[in-house]
Fold each of these.
Amino acid sequence: MTTEFASKGGRTVVLQLTPVRSEHAGVRISGCVGGSGAPVLLLHGYPQTSRMWHPVAERLAEHHTVVLADLRGYGDSDKPAPAPDGSTYAKRAMARDQHALMHSLGFDRFAVVGHDRGARVAHRLALDAPEAVDRLAVLDIVPTLHMFDHVDRAMASTYFHWFFLALRNGLPESLISADPRTWLRSRFTGRNAGGRPIDPEAYAEYERCFLSPGAIEASTADYQSAATVDLEHDRADHLADRRLAMPLLALWGAHGYVGANFDVVDVWRTYAEHARGTEISADHYLAEEAPERVAEELLAFLAEREDAA
């Protein structure tokens, strides 16, 4: 497919993307691929889809093969019914989906870039399959374990949805289903620091997918797993001192919660041997608010693997 959108200065950018699908353990993952060069997997956050990456992918595709994938439970990927033990939407299962997608495309070793929930899946993928991930970039997060171990009033207020969505009594699904459009808008309202707004066509895609059958239950299960089985996996790795060995780049919004409340690079150095990072003049959705700057940082980071080769 061909995607057109306005880039910096109002110019029209044409990004050539080919739809792809893979299936692992009975779950079909939807995505698209474009560009040429060393492969880069791009993973989105909540409540978005792979469409969020288009402004950044346009730049990356000049030098890399970009794979934009919908996570399990999101976009046009399958949304299986959650298992009671949380395993269906464990980051381990979601990471295996993406590993299988890249393998189906012939990529045995690749870089991963994730934002928000996608960054948490990327972190797990790099832990579970270090032979496949040669570089990791995480946008606007610190590790899930660190977040839950440092809950305070500011975190509980800003990230109230973590605790709301993690309820396993059916309440979040019922309340969100009563007015899903209002809930969806609330995830973006007030989270822009004056940069580029969310592309209306991208937002329409987020809404279409969020309103699709099973999406609310699946995305809620994502958070329920994060507060249970994911924490078990993360704590076991942390206690065993299993750290990421590949280079890690952390980017965060200078006007968002993460940058204001954590020394982001210092936190990641507890979990990764080679971590560095920088803030971006944006809020949480930095890849859409400041795509040129994000792409610039990613291109420089990804170019280092080619220099090393």
Amino acid sequence: MTETVDVVLIGGGIMSATLGTFLSELQPDWKITVYERLSDVALESSNAWNNAGTGHAALCELNYTPEASDGTIDPSKAISINEQFQQSRQFWSSLVEAGVLNAPSTFINSTPHMTFVQGEKDVAFLKARYEVLRRQPLFAGIEYSEDSRVINEWAPLLMNKRRAGTPFAATRVPAGTDVDFGALTHQLFDNLRSRGVEVVTNREVRKLKRQKDGSWNVTWRNTVGRTPGTTNARFVFVGAGGWALKLLQRSGIPEIKGYGVFPIGGQWLKTSNPKLVAQHKAKVYSQASVGAPPMSVPHLDTRMVDGEASLLFGPFATFSPKFLKNGSMLDIVTQVRPHNIGPMLKVAVDNPSLITYLVGELLKDHSKKMDSLRTFMPTAQDEDWELLQAGQRAQVMKKDPKKGGVLQFGTEVVTSEDGSIAGLLGASPGASTAVSIMLGLLRRSFPGEIAGWEPRLRELIPSYGETLNARPEVAREVLEETSEALALTA
């Protein structure tokens, strides 16, 4: 017997949890079902150890402030990313105040965001970036220094026994955060269950077929027992990480034509040595290696997971043909279609530096990885650090009218023309900007309902529909209010 519901959410990560929470707030009478193929939610990209936990607000990530050929710095993308993260903060604040989320410290903690660079060229770039960003209201409080004594106060592990001679500089924003997206995802799903949402684990969606009435027939099977079944839904969201491409292809929607994904894995060096952890309270990013994707920018991070503090350094790129950590070795092959093979081949031809980078990363043994860490932390000792496997990221490849095919970093929502099905492709800064991404999805997929939902959306997100950076006083007020609600102290 086929069950009929209003909404099926595929994938038990932060995206489905966020969209499900929105829909349960906006349309509590709708029947919502969530399917996750693994034994629990938040076991893939949303798991705390599978991502950096950076509350991505472009405070420290240099790739969001590109430098033009004339040396000018464009802050527009950084401002946009920050605006999106502020929406996440407001939404989480509202849910904390409503008792939907637990104490803020269980999923978000104040952690300064820093950028540290070496060499005259990168120092000049960082200083120019600082001069541009310090004038933006959302970046108020950013600090810059080339003084080893000041940087030592910010992050002692960076400066201890660092050799003199090479120019270095750092910026610091005390208002940065570390987010445990695994804990956040679990809490959101716990709340959804309490509201009557059916969250089914060990259930793998196999096929999506559009019905004559515009609804979707979702064919699934239980991974334990292999029993099959079907569900009919008016709307389907595919938030299944790299698996989303496969399901969207199976749906047959024309909007997915030309898309492919390139999987990149990662590893971290981790330490829980309390003497080291006590000396580093920051997330410190630097410049990416030549050819490296933005998600592989090296950084030394404070992490707080399940109440335990630790430090992570990386990520170091790995390669697997799987689209998920728990995917199939055939994923990279079975995605190929006549409509996407051209764009994918063009991406391969146009990105030799990425291939060179990946090969170099794969050749690094533990000793070489420790050498990379010592560029940040000169006193790092091998015995203090263990290697930890991170998550899989599926970078988007798609058609481009001018180039034929491009490799796209970031996230992208693919939606059918009638809005009845949507899926998320891509990687960072997805989790941090999940709220903004899902707001965009609501507008595209539910054009008839969005006007009626907007009063409630403004209650949940006071800046909904407006920008903060253009209104300094409002920006400061929102930052202060969300910091208080989330118990964040600089």
Amino acid sequence: MKNGILIIDKPQGITSHDVVRQVRRLLRMRRVGHTGTLDPLATGVLPVAVGEGTRLVEFLMAGDKTYRATLKLGERTDTQDSEGAVLERRPFGAVNLGSIEEACRSLIGTIRQLPPMYSALKKDGVPLYKLARQGIEVERAEREVEIHRLDLLAVDLPYVTIEVDCSKGTYIRTLCQDLGEILGPGAHLTALRRVATGSFSEKDAISLDTLAERAQDKEIPGFFSLEEALRDYPRLEVNSEATRRLADGVPPQISGIVGSLPAEGRTVCLLAEGKLVAVARFAPERLKERRGDFELLRVFHRHNISE
């Protein structure tokens, strides 16, 4: 059984769930899941968890993202992208390179976003996009996100292309709409590509066509083991005694760790002979559980580690 993640270069026009279905069929495995939805309009880096990798989804989703987006000034749509109906048209003649650069700079840092109705967020268990299709709009809470970088790549009015480094949970459609509002004429997203998620980028990704050709190979391009999947997290080796106790659900003590300790509260990978045996939070001062110095988040029972 393959356990880890596949970095798929998602094509335009299909959903993330469509990608999961194809991976499940090609690898002949049931336990497959994606690590963060990309809209059908979007392309690019989509990590797909396979086998035991499905237990790592929350950790894989936590990293920052990089997107390349094109927006069209002068039109607002109900979905905030080109797949929706045009709600309003405004002139964009007063917009120039300087005003676009200034607007981009104003969005860098901590900003608040109102999640769009056409999103996978749920209200009473129902995805918002299903309510939106019925013409229902519900109250949503704003959320804080971080825009680390917002570079202007190209301007060919009414089209503007940007590249964004941002925290998880950022809606690029909403960012494009907000940029249009700052400039005055409004805007909507016309093209979106996820360039990177965490430390995984386009160069790590393979197409579904390549996967179809190589699915039964011993080594599949774009496939990363459990250990490689969490390469963004600190790695700590545990000694043999701590490894045996981990198998019984007992967190290791500092004395069972080889190497430098992380900052308190940091999520880490615990390895035995280079193999992932647990994901844990370093918590030497915790009160609820007095055994060990780590809070166990996931434990992997790896047999025959020495092999």
Amino acid sequence: MAKRIQLSRHGGPEVLEYVDFTPAAPGPREVRVRNQAIGLNFIDIYYRNGLYPLSLPSGLGSEGAGVVEAVGSAVSEFQVGDRVAYCTGPQGSYAELSVLPADVLVPLPAGVSCEQAAAATLKGLTVQYLLRQIGKLQGGETILFHAAAGGVGSLACQWARALGVRLIGTVGSAEKAERAQALGAWATIDYSREDVRARVLELTDGEKCPVVYDSVGKDTWEISLDCVARRGLLVSFGNASGPVTGVNLGILAQKGSLFVTRPTLAGYADTPERLRAMAAELYALVANGTLQVEIGQRHALADAGAAQAAQAGRKTTGSTILLP
């Protein structure tokens, strides 16, 4: 027997139950991992509240890191005792044990701890595809990145600095502004007391930004459009304030022949080879110190509901992990 978080209905944090379960034996191409640390992400909340479909009852969570405990008969790339991480597998990482397809696992190098991997794999791979694949930033650009003090934003600030990119980060307080700038943001905008549109125009000498990254969604959609330069790109990659709906494509013409994309990690890490190449780039930057992984909160697995409530209430900084 092992412990996991399970939900039988959609709703708030109260629907999360800490229960006993018996993990299945690995199939031919599966691996059983004993989780040492588990990542907590906004997408988990979307599954919990029903924004994203989930067949109930179900486990929850998609990110974790730990040690291989058993392998299926057709698995050759991993062995018992290997340290691995994952973030694109089926729901169920909020658990002491997870049985996963071998194709979603990535090897964990010696210079990266399980806690670092659980805190940074999903967020870091997200930043990788945002900055290195979608934006294809070369250095010298000035970009806008919402929620720059959050888990994804804190890594984006550092990675942008390493690329020579000027990142303007929106934040909700003076404390978060100081933190984002310490991590590498070129400038910050405190949306609680500053006009984001006006500040972007000021900071870019009226040019706006060639790329705007928005994980907030409904509350920032129109602001983001107003901050994109002519023929620029708006990357909408999250729904922290709710989904963007009722979009009139004509507004893209009105704002300057803009481009918009709504990407997902699954759309970029869509093969084991691409996933592991992206992870290797991320982990190399973590191991050499270019990316500092800040774990702002650690919660026991049993307290997953409280951890999610704090994240949804924007009361967290950096990454949050659960410990089995």
